[in-house]
Prior knowledge:
By secondary structure, the chain is of the alpha/beta class. Helix content is about 40%, strand content about 15%. Helix 3 (about 50-65) runs antiparallel to helix 11 and helix 12 runs parallel beside helix 15 (about 405-420). Bound molecules: ligand C6P.
Amino acid sequence: MTTNLKSREDSVMKTPSFDIEKIREEFPTLHQEVHGKPLVYLDNAATTQKPRAVIEKLHHYYTWDNANIHRGVHTLSERSTQEYEAAREKIRQFIHAKKTSEIIFTRGTTESINLVAQTYGREHLQAGDEIIISHMEHHSNIVPWQILAEQSGAQLKVVPITDQGELDLEAYQKLFSKRTKLVSMVYVSNSLGTVNPIKQVIEFAHQAGVPVLVDGAQAVNHLSIDVQDLDADFFAFSGHKLFGPTGIGVLYGKEQLLEKMPPYQGGGDMIRQVSFEKTTYNDLPYKFEAGTPHIAGAIGLGAAIDYLQEIGMSHLATYERDLLDYASKAFEQLPDLKIIGQAKDKTSVISFVLKDIHPHDIGTILDREGVAVRAGHHCTMPLMQRFQVPATVRASFAFYNTFEEIDKLVEAVKKVQEVFTS
Length: 422
Ligand code: C6P
């Protein structure tokens, strides 16, 4: 195993501009002990750690530039506005959107989806209309549609998934009817790691004249995103899963759709003219950004994107694929361990159950070994029901993880097995 580890890391380190030791140096959080053991952070699907570039950007912003945006004529406000809008442009480039007016800052994926449900959804859906989602959605891509369904009388249609954890594309196509008004689908499953054939999903929906919202929360940090190539109508993601701050996220929407949507919230910055008789709204994207936004968050997210682009998304993806292969092979050797989610196309996530040992007990023992994983339903209760498990243990890897850390995870899981069999 050790020889294997060395050769793998050697080959990765030969990749230009990908030096794992140098990368790890950029993430201060990784360099600490937990319960007297070096931290092995494998909960990246929940949130990612922040590189120094992001931390320093936030520090710099609050030290020098802090001011409200779009309002003041003074220098700090101008600097703050300029940085905030520069971040929007970085995001536009990162996801290959046509215009910055299509990039709306939100609190995160959850708010982005709720925004579409309560604006586009309330405007376009009526009693009897149908919304297609899948069985592997995060609660954030289920509950907003259920709320909309209650308000409008629309119904949810759910695409089944296979035992491997893949989308049943044939069943998806059969779900369409004349009443289908929207598809809202996860690109990468947070619980299984499955990468859905989202381009095909969108193509098929468009043939039926139906727009598609893509939940890209777990996709942006693993895959290169091109919203124009995907032809996504809406694309939602969170900054904190992309090595940026919490509390900031993005909704991308095609301009022609956003233009016709009513505002989500009312308040400052989203208006053009207000009187007691009539209020007119601001242009895109500000129409959807009521109130003082998370200015520092947006700027920090811009710094995260700069950092990622310096390394290169394709290098990250290759390395993470190697980590996943390595971990999957090691896990297959462990007796009584069942991996939930064996899709052919997966990101670096391994969800597993271990006989009848409760995932929370496993998570607690792993924590004692310094290994941070998530144990629970991962906000995908219907998916847990589909696989007839109450919960799973989920190890999710980022590009700053190492093969040696996977060895530590495997050793820690063996320890769990020892504890429960002795
Ligand atoms: N998943 C996880 O541990 P927010 O909370 O708005 O940043 O993201 C919500 C969300 C939406 N869709 C998917 C596919 C997600 O994975 C998440 C967040 C975390 O899996 C926290 S529950």
